[in-house]
Design a protein that fits this description.
The protein is α+β, with helices and mostly antiparallel strands. The chain has four helices and ten strands, in the order αααββββββββββα.
């Protein structure tokens, strides 16, 4: 029994020695690495349509870094990712995608989400905020209104593709004008 306690004690001392001698990074060192990575990630953001090429992107950093009303980030054959920034009191705009399912994820802000079978009857009304997902089935009228006190930052996934490759709309008005063209 004494031998067991002695071996357990030696093991504990060895673990403690490894931890304090650089076997593990201290919390401060881990925090520096996290901050450094976040800074590097933010400085490396290039807002563009990455096309149908393979890509690994920090979607949260890209979404929070987008200042345009709409920026297409990735357009594939059957799927598209767009980033949106909706100003306080602004809206995505009432729309209907007859053949497109849509997923939206809010990264920052708060929205009133409305959906329905007709634009006169948006009977599905919910509040969504950061980290919430919104699922819009094809054929549903829908709109999101920023009800928060800061810009609403979100990304949207369309399946199939909704916007032309490389689309950037600086403002809501730019987006509405472009919608009449395509």
């Amino acid at each position: 029994m004494i031998r067991y306690f002695f071996q357990a004690g030696l093991f504990a001392v060895a673990v403690a020695a490894c931890t304090s001698c650089g076997g593990r990074a201290s919390q401060a060192e881990r925090d520096k690495t996290t901050v450094s990575t976040a800074v590097e990630t933010k400085s490396m953001i290039e807002l563009k349509d990455y096309g149908a090429e393979p890509a690994v992107l920090d979607i949260e950093a890209y979404t929070l870094g987008n200042e345009n009303f709409r920026t297409v980030l990735w357009t594939g054959t059957n799927l598209q990712v767009t980033l949106m920034t909706i100003p306080v009191g602004g809206e995505v705009g009432l729309e209907l995608h007859p053949d497109i399912d849509q997923f939206l994820r809010i990264e920052e802000g708060e929205a009133k989400v409305m959906m329905g079978d007709s634009k006169e009857d948006l009977n599905y009304v919910r509040t969504a905020k950061a980290d919430h997902a919104v699922f819009v089935p094809a054929g549903k009228w829908h709109n999101l209104v920023n009800i928060g006190d800061k810009p609403l930052k979100l990304y949207s996934i369309y399946a199939p593709v909704e916007h032309p490759y490389g689309t950037v709309h600086k403002t809501y008005d730019d987006a509405m004008a472009a919608e009449h063209l395509h």
